[in-house]
Design goal:
mainly alpha, 106 residues, single chain, 6 helices, 2 domains, elongated
């Protein structure tokens, strides 16, 4: 994501100070592709937006995860499973998603 200040620095260096693209890239630590994009366009800020939000793999496993979390909260503190152990148990049952999705849901 490029902010307005960075876009202004690139345009000032190129159009006012007449610096080459390669030098601008070195000074601002940006790729030449980004610098060219800023110079050629009229936009003042660049943002990435997803066109389609990917469906999480956790969806079909939520009931099982809820059951495991409910059973885990009923145990004494020393016997409770960590989220890593719960994730490993889900993997053993066939879950193919990542740990972060389980952690965020829990």
């Amino acid at each position: 994501m490029l902010v307005v200040e960075t876009v202004a620095k690139i345009r000032r260096a190129y159009f006012v100070q007449h610096k080459p693209i390669k030098q601008i890239c070195r000074e601002l630590m940006l790729s030449r592709k980004v610098v060219r994009k800023v110079i050629r366009s009229e936009a003042t800020a660049f943002r990435y937006t997803r066109s389609v939000q990917p469906a999480p793999k956790l969806g079909p496993w939520r009931d099982e995860l809820d059951r495991m979390l409910a059973a885990n909260t009923g145990k004494p503190a020393r016997e409770r499973l960590t989220l890593t152990r719960i994730f490993e148990a889900l993997r053993g049952l066939g879950y193919e998603g990542g740990y972060d999705a389980v952690r965020r849901y829990a």
